[in-house]
Amino acid sequence: MEFSSKLLEKAVSEMSQLPGIGKRTALRLVLHLLKQPKEQTDFLTQALTNMRNDIKFCKNCHNISDIEVCEICANPSRNYKIICVVEDVRDVMAIENTGQFRGIYHVLGGKISPIDGIGPSQLNVASLVEKVKAGNVEEIIFALSSTMEGDTTNFYIYKQIKDSGVTTSSIARGISVGDELEYADEVTLGRSIVNRIPFENSLRNI
Amino acid sequence: MEFSSKLLEKAVSEMSQLPGIGKRTALRLVLHLLKQPKEQTDFLTQALTNMRNDIKFCKNCHNISDIEVCEICANPSRNYKIICVVEDVRDVMAIENTGQFRGIYHVLGGKISPIDGIGPSQLNVASLVEKVKAGNVEEIIFALSSTMEGDTTNFYIYKQIKDSGVTTSSIARGISVGDELEYADEVTLGRSIVNRIPFENSLRNI
Question: I need a labelling partner for B38 at 20 to 30 A (CA). Which of B19, B68, B82, B119 fits?
Answer without folding.
Answer: B19
